[in-house]
Amino acid sequence: MTIPTTQSRPFAQPGLPATMRANILKRQGDMAMETLPLPQLDADQVLVQVAAVGVCGSDVHYYEHGRIGPYVVDHPLILGHELSGRIAAVGSAVDPSRVGKRVAVEPQRPCRKCKQCKAGRYNLCPDIEFYATPPINGAFAEYVTIQSDFAYDIPDSVSDEAAALIEPLSVGLWACERAEIKPGSRVLIAGAGPIGIIAAQAARAFGATEIYISDIAEDRLAFALKHGATHALNAKTDSVEGLDVDAFIDASGAPQAVRAGIKAVAPAGRVILVGLGADDVELPVSYIQNREIWLSGVFRYTNTWPLAIQLIADGKVDLDILVTGKFALADSEEALKAGKQPGQLKAVVYPGRSL
Q1: Cα separation of 29 and 61, whole Å?
Q2: Residues 158-204 pLDDT 10s
Q3: CA end-to-end span of the chain, whole Å?
Q4: Phi-psi group of 317: left, alpha or beta (phi > 0 → left; psi -120 to 50 → alpha; rest → beta)
Q5: Are the C-beta atoms of 326 and 145 separated by less than 8 Å?
Q6: Considering the entire predicted model, what is its pTM?
């Protein structure tokens, strides 16, 4: 799954180039274009020519800070884990008819053997490899490899951009599954950024009838109302306490939003923490105990791509509306900075295009 270093032997296949371009994070705050050998395939892998890569907050964090928790960028790293593309070649154990198929890539490789994997929780595999998480390279490159069953065929009606953004959609779907959202559910979401809006659309697809979303940015709240939410709350002025929702999903990472959101949950409700925030947060423990509130974190996702593809194809989720910036591979550094611009939600990098 890793993109090889210059010492790796290139994959030889008629009609394919011997090398590829990649934009590499050399060190904190320093990106550079390089030419690398085409990656070699394992028997169960496919070679994907990358079409589109969404920029995630974790990519930005690695670029700006050089680490996320225990994961440290201590050698050059290719960022990017939200991707789509077209299969250019297959390993010896893969059906050759897959060549040419458009795919959305689930950017991880679990061991499939450990206790968590065998229990169906492969996202919790202790040996999982994940794109753009040190030391595993990601997708700001012209080609990547992935196990064949983690490259999902997509219909022509699904754009390259939407297919790439199935990765963050999967976070929203997994959060809604963990929250046990069902028809008639009432939901509060903190944070009207890309994940918050995606979570709102996912909650609506799961049948939620009231979807509250809170944020401090009025423009994002207005956007969320058009694309999933039924009620918008300004976190500076509107209290959420006492809403008595069935579930609260935090997509902000803000400690104050987490505490307020918990107090908006009805007895026996669920709290799902998605946003990356402080390592330690003070929580209203007595409120959680007295109402028997169920609280969980979310770590990526499991088995979400088939549902995500179906929801997009059926028009129940719209991811194309999130794309606010398009960048060539050589401009990946600018894409990483784009989120700080007013009105920006999602930047997308196109390794195969000159924009």
Answers
A1: 10
A2: 999 999 999 999 999 999 999 999 999 999 999 999 999 999 999 99
A3: 28
A4: beta
A5: no
A6: 0.93
